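Q: I'm writing up a methods section and want to include an example of the input and output format. Could you take the sequence below and give the corresponding predicted structure tokens, formatted cleanly so I can copy it straight into the document?
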Amino acid sequence: MLKHFLTILLLLSCPNILYAQSPIGPNEVDEELTRNVDVTGQGKLNKISLHIRAKSMHSPFTWELSITANGKDIYTYASDDTEIDKFFGSKGYVKNCQGYVDCKKKYYFHDILDNLVLNGNKWYNLEGTLDKTQSNTLYPIGRNYLEKCCAISGTKADAILQNIENKLRNGTAIILNMVTSPVTARNPEVFAPEIGRFIPIYVD
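A: Here is the clean output for your methods example:
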């Protein structure tokens, strides 16, 4: 009994002993942020998970983002931000923050998820996105994507894209805006339930 009491007393008086047994070091960053948002437009909440890792706040971050629907991952993206880490100390690289650490916290713990899902049709050029005479708009890139991913072409492909066009026109489309840095993003995408995938709607 005395030996057991002394062991507990030692652990309480030396919290570093307990901490040293943790797989995460005292300065390491290992955070998982989650949100429940309808990303597919099917009226159900989808789990969005963002897992952030780094040796410390002053080290480059790596991160993984996944979106789950009906228990399955329907979207994943991973990034190693070693090349952009030095820019977080540059004025204006991340808006509304000051300093390297403050700007990293804002970008990773707020901006990535805050800007991931866009609604409505006020933020993009609708007619430009739907212009069939251009090669970087919904129908040309959508047809190409559907043929490559799913061997869907012709009227079947156009029916899927028409459904997306209708949502874009009436403002009910939910746009996935996956950032790759504070100043860059992947092409905007919309979920197509017919294939269970996100389809790019515009390419810069």
